[in-house]
Amino acid sequence: MFTWTAVMHILRPPLYWRLIGQQMMRIGYFSLPVVALTSFFTGGVLALQIYYGSDQFNSESIVATIVALGITRELGPVLGGLMVAGRAAAAIAAELGTMRVTEQIDALTTLSTNPFKYLVVPRILAAVITLPALVFIGDVIGIFGGFVVGTQSLDFNSGVYIKTTVDFLELDDITSGLIKSSVFGFIIAVMGCYQGFHSKGGALGVGRATTNAVVISSILILATNYVMTSLFFSS
Q1: Which of 48, 49, 131, 170 could form a disulfide with 185 if both were Cys (CB 3.0 to 4.6 A apart)?
Q2: Would you state the pLDDT for residue 56?
Q3: Is the pLDDT at 140 greater than 80, yes or no?
Q4: What is the rounded CA–CA span in Å between residue 135 and residue 112?
Q5: Phi, psi at residue 16, to the nearest 5°?
Q6: 3-class secondary structure, 234
Q7: Residue 35: domain span
Q8: Could you tell me if residue 231 is inside a domain?
Q9: What is the pLDDT of residue 57?
């Protein structure tokens, strides 16, 4: 019911664009360093593991291909979503939970301001918009991490590595990951807002809401990823 109410308010004007912009900075821009670092090292370790596991049989083409596909299809959106869940979902739940236990949300209602319009909608829209952008940047950095490890540590030819990546990477691989990330952004924002809205019991309740937001968001991201992967690549 909370999710349905939030979606209905997204579809009905007005929208607080200034608040949406602020949340895009908090959820998206400030999450960029952790997503970039995670993606870079994930691409690098993926290249190492594939190389060591392939017994060096045509490993140059295998490493480049699997790193590109693994990052864009799965690891980019999933790890990006989990990192943002750990950062943004916790922050959203803590902020709204504090507002709930200090009766600031009730004060908004008293002042004839819809709490969903003012607090929930900007966060959901910001997460849905910014997470695909974060994941796209993470994809680029992750593939670059694999390239750095492949060319510097494994002595791959840089030209062959880049050509193999370009040849095997298709637009559908990238778009499927971006669609996933948009859904993950929706999950992160909704769970953070829901837990914050329904927190109670003072500081203990806010801490419990923060923990629940991160844990449930992470589980839902992994479960949703499985379902969406089955739909995208079942044929």
Answers
A1: 131
A2: 59
A3: yes
A4: 38
A5: -90, 90
A6: coil
A7: 2-9+16-226
A8: no
A9: 63
